[in-house]
Amino acid sequence: MKKALALLVAFAITAGTVMAGQITVGFAQLGAESMWRTANTDSIKGEAAKRGINLVFSDAQQKQENQIKAVRSFIAQEVDVIGLPPLVNSGWEPVLREARDAGIPVILADRTVDTSDDSLYVSFIGSNFIQEGENAGNWLVRELMGRYGEVSGEVFELVGTVGAAPAIDRKAGFEKVIANHPHLNIVKSQSGDFTRAKGKEVMEAFIKSPEWGRASRKIIFGHNDDMVLGAIQALEEAGINPGTECILIGVDGIADAFEAIAQGKMHCTVECNPLIGPQFYDMVEALVAGKEIPKIVYSIEGTYDYMCAEVLLPWRRTLY
Ligand code: GYE
Q1: Which of 24, 35, 178, 319 suits 261 as a labelling partner, its CA being 20 to 30 A distant?
Q2: Which atom of ligand 1 is nearest to the CA of 127?
Q3: Residues enclosing ligand 1, CB less than 6 A?
Q4: What is the pLDDT of residues 168-198, one digit of tens each?
Q5: Is 245 exposed, middle or buried (0-12, 13-18, 19+ CB in 10 A)?
């Protein structure tokens, strides 16, 4: 009864603000774990406001059950389209089936799901995470070759959220590249859940490990920049100079990473574009107009290092 009432209230609030012909989108954001994510949320909210789209937004605080609940409530509210960045890549089939049966298209925004039934969503828009892992690996191989004339070293890997597509795929892409180099190996690998605080904690544990003591070339590969920035704090607190004693690579390309690179504390960031609001609503509007949309839309992304970070920092601050 309470639930039904809550649903009714939620519906009344949304319905009350909708104008005739206005598109309603439910977006089940997964959390606010990183600067990438806050930029992504701003893009999704800002672009809806610009286009006069009625956005029903929810934040699952990094809990899959909350995201599933949000999707169910969007179905009950009969929104036109649902946007979903799945926290982890499994466990989505029942709720995606419910949306499909209700005739509400779901666009996977940012992260992917692991399913053999791709009729459960209409489209994926986001990054090619395997490619990002490869970009990180390729930059590292070139860097080692340039610095030392050989490709060898020990990698300490800060993994993203366990079971999340960007964590699984970035690892896979990176490993694929370094597999060609027998003296370049991952010696430690642990999840820092894509957050700065956990990245720092995991780095503290890495520093105390025997592998750290034994490593001759210490390389830190973080599945996002926030974890690497946390790791830099841990290194500095332990009296280790990140810029000269380690090689640090992150993913996302947030302005704070550009700044750390410009300051000589970090070496490279692989871009992952969070500003997908405009493309997302292009798809929403096309769907509502009954048009076909592509099944996959990948962002185009680069890799940035100490050769350019300082010059590009002011521009980057205007992005994310
Ligand atoms: O790289 C990370 C965030 O799903 C692509 O999630 C996104 C990732 C991003 O927490 O910073």
Answers
A1: 178
A2: 5
A3: 33-34, 36-37, 110-111, 127, 166, 194, 224, 226, 251-252, 272
A4: 999 999 999 999 999 999 999 999 999 999 9
A5: exposed
